[in-house]
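Example record used in the benchmark description.
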Amino acid sequence: MLDKATGLARALAILLSLVAAFIAIPNLDTALVLVALGLVAGIAYGDDARPNLILLALALPLAATAVGHIPSVGAQLGAVAVNLGLAAAAAVASSIAIYLFHATKADLSGLTK
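Model output (structure tokens):
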């Protein structure tokens, strides 16, 4: 069930990133929704996928700057990359928080042995 929820959150974040770049959505704080969806999606990332997720969160703002120079669609493509980067950064935050929780739990349980 958790895999379905995190997958849905990731899919909604991607969809909202695309739609919000081209259409203004009234009365919706897009950044807040993307952060919330990213936090939920980040639960699914394990130790093996975390480095790729961190690289993605770092690379997307750079890609946004690069594609921003394309005539007529650069601003929209840059907005898509920024939106996706925001969701990825939130996913990194929740993934790291879960990692730190498990590491601390393991450290504390090692004290009782």
